[in-house]
Fold this protein.
Amino acid sequence: TISRQGTTMRLTALMLAAFSGTCLAQTTTVSSPDGQIKVTISDEQHTPSYEISFAGKQVIANSSLGLVFKQQPAMSEGYKISSQTTDSVKSSWEQPWGERQTVVDNHNEVAVTFKKPQPQGGTFTVRFRAFNDGVGFRYELPKQAGYDDVEITKELTEFAITDSSDATAWWIPARGWNRYEYVYNTTPLHKAALVHTPFTIKNKEGVHISIHEAALVDYAGMVLNQRRDGTFQADLTPWSDGVAVKKQGAFNTPWRTIQIGDEAVDLINSDIILNLNEPNKLGDVSWVKPGKYVGIWWGMHINENTWGSGKIHGATTANTKYYMDFAAKYGFDGVLVEGWNIGWDGDWFFNGDVFSFTQPYDDFDIEELTRYGKEKGVQLIGHHETSGNVTNYRNQMEDAFALYEKSNVSQVKTGYVADGGNIKRIDENGIVRKEWHDGQFMVNEYLHNVKLAAKHKISINTHEPVKDTGLRRTYPNWIAREGARGQEFNAWGTPPNPPEHIPMLAFTRMLAGPMDFTPGIFDMGFNGLGADTNRPQTTLAKQLALYVVMYSPIQMAADLPRNYLAKPDAFQFIQDVPTDWQQSIALQGEVGDYVVFARKERKRDQYSGNDWYLGAVTDEKARTLEVKLDFLDKGKKFEAQIYRDGDKAEWVNNPYDLKVEKRIVTADDKLTLKLATSGGTAIRFKAI
Ligand code: NOJ
Ligand code: CA
């Protein structure tokens, strides 16, 4: 049940006695409201440290805290606890859009201030919040003499996994050429070297843990470096000059987060990343609209069209009108158009310097399409591909958004295709610098883009982004990102996304926030079926289930219109499924194996808000799952419209075998789901 109390209890600040240089070591603790999670913070070791237990068993062993600076002495060794304050919060807040309308924030907090006893020592506070589903902590540095202008070279924060020799980890490599777009690895924990977050672990006891961060603002992204067996150190992605973070005056770091649960799905059902972000800073955001879209996109990925000009140019006025007609007829809100602007000719991956963000190709009449879209009730969705030259984009950004605002565009997909460490910028002195997608420079650049877009009432869907850390709470126009291998890899990736990819993303990448995966490929035979071609390695039913499993407030129907028209039964589900939810529950699953979600539609008008949806997906193994329907509203009847794998379905040679069935069900019923190899089930529970 959801607490509507909205109360915040402030407990009295508790000051520990000040003490001298020869003081005693001290520890302090904070526990989650249900008492299951306990954090112990101490100055007993040579550096400040913390450890965490869950249900009476240690899960994070003694782990160091601290920051290292280029000019100033490090804040770590020799620092002692000097004071602490505590707080308890039990409140809830509303999302303008999301997996659920109301988010509960229930935690206990301790903010521990460390000081170095010698006169020249500085001070810092580490604020810990213990929730029932995990822990967040961050460093807070007040303005203080000697530390006014700092360059952080290293963070000493550790995450030491208890009994690490028996733990399993799911991860992608960090600081690599392909940013975040890798096939996930499943390995013993000790094989994970330098990894991105969310970093998901299952320990010897079967406890699931995910390490990530929240509210990454004006700071370097954190990756994790296994320094000793089981001990991961925060590793901050540096600027091109080698410094990790540049800061002036007082500052707080992002929150380091550790989600903890008995079951894998507990990680998904946790809201701590959002709770650790600041409330909405944009005010009225009724102009941010969840929805569904189609677009001039997949045709380029399967080489039927080109982004650049020529005979098979995708972004023509005529083709866009064709898509607008299709969108209007089948209830889509927008049409994404890639390749509409000058700069795509030649090898566009390296064309960042020549992109214009205001000048269309001759065969793309933006004024006429704005008019046509208004007539049809369909919006153009904008596209800004930077090919990694962010200075060229920044110089045109204001004009680019102004043009789109004038053209009735309220959503722009951005792109930063460039290899990791190869984002090009021209600095203040005219010198070319190469930056990482997750360094402090780009963290700021992405947010600048989102804030400027907000001034034009435009929402942003970032491709080749920095990882999501829950900033959609603060900037609700940051509606989605890529930041993992999306559907595009099925067109041309080596290898395409394997059958386990979706149940893997659900417990890793998706813990960070919405992904614009672009589901719904109905024609898998564009290169021929079989196991060794480029194609979605799924059944058709699984493509439908993605709309429920892979949360995003904007969902694309990614395939070509003709492929939807050829399979009207399956296409009906895409027309029906909403993208904004009253409630979402991960019901069951195991990392990389399978996952089942139930979500209730959020109310938009008098006709909506009563239906539930279910999405289930499996990896290469066929499975039979029993699902209790006790999430449905009690005492109500629903027509279950079931889209499932047919009895002969299997992903390699028979992916299209789909059965659509209807049954009347209530909350007292159970359903048996039979998933084919790399199969799925999608259900609409229509309230009757
Ligand atoms: C990569 C993006 O992920 C994809 O969706 C887009 O079509 C291309 N870049 C071109 O911008
Ligand atoms: Ca991409």
